[in-house]
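pasting for ref
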Amino acid sequence: MEDGGVGEKILTGHENGLITMNIAEADDAYRERTRAEMGEPYCTLLRHFRHEIGHYYFDRLATGTKWEEPCRKMFGDERVDFAKALQAHYEEGPPADRDKSYVSAYATTHPWQDWA
């Protein structure tokens, strides 16, 4: 799917294992612009797909299982309000030492993103 800048905005995401990719991300210029805007060093379609499937794996492997609490100890409590965490991230930025514990700045936004 592609939003093309007109009408409904298509976001790459997931819902119960169904992953939607905005095909605009296949365009090198678009992807590079987005990578720069988000400060992400690894912005590829494959990385984005792996990230989204990671969310699905969390739901399948951790949610409601004996692994839920160990995951919370390692990645943080995923029940924290995502919208508020994302807003705080974009207002305050990632922690200064994020490169010691996180794969990317975006991973610092919320425990779900750190897991994925």
